[in-house]
Amino acid sequence: MSETQDQLISTTATTAELEDGTSASASASASAGTDVAVVGDTMQKKTIAPTPPQPHHPSLAGSVISAGVNFNGEAALTIKIQNIASTANFGVRLDLKTIALKCRNTEFNPRRFGAVVMRLREPRATALIFASGKVCVTGVKSTHNATLAMKKFHYILERIGFQPHAYMDYKIQNIVGTCDCGFPIRLEGLVYAHSAFASYEPELFPGLIYRLVSPRVVFLIFVSGKVVITGAKKETDLANALTKLYPVLVEFKKVQVAAFPPTVATTTTTTTVAVATAPTTTTTNPSPQGQLKDDTPTQMEQV
Predict the structure, then answer these.
(1) 156 and 183 share a domain?
(2) Which has more confidence, 264 or 91?
């Protein structure tokens, strides 16, 4: 009798261990991002797209690059990246209507534009998703955030049922940066001396357009000293281009800047000039006594 009870207790413990192991494995697989289906005594796993790892967080501030060298050998300017445009090809045809219905923060109006506009909050980015599988991401201010945003868009499309390729053919197409030289620039002299690379039409656009050959970027230079750099593919291209152009900007620096004349209160003062007139005394020779005045008219009186 005791042997039978011992066998029942051991069988119950083994069954409990198996159930605990099954539940533990099911919970572990569920936490790992898999769906567990138990059919009879067998356990089947149905895998879904796992949550992408987060080894890094989006950068809240945009990239700031130092460029230019002053007379002391120090960095003279800082370039602030304003926008980065990047493209990728997911290699699969996409149903834009399905994407617009299943995803949040999306816009799709085929009559106006043939692509889905999808926006992210972290990092702050906007994507144009086309039916051919090509995606264009804009609005980010660092290459780090541009790569992270493209990976998130790839993961979103994978979660709603599409099969995008792992190799996205990711490329950065354009980087836009701005900087301030800190001094006004003579644009007329600059376009006259560098007419092969510069064009300046103040009646059409107030800025001077300077096209640098190597690296291949375009400058928009304004009289106030503000500079916009566009067309770069890498962040280092911005720094190298501005380092080359900075001595030219210093050469055409405005030395004497006309200022507005100061407003002086004008007061009218009246000056009185005293003219001293000497008294004139007239002396008359008295006629001798007994001599009468000649009554004969003079020549003037006759006239």
Answers:
(1) no
(2) 91
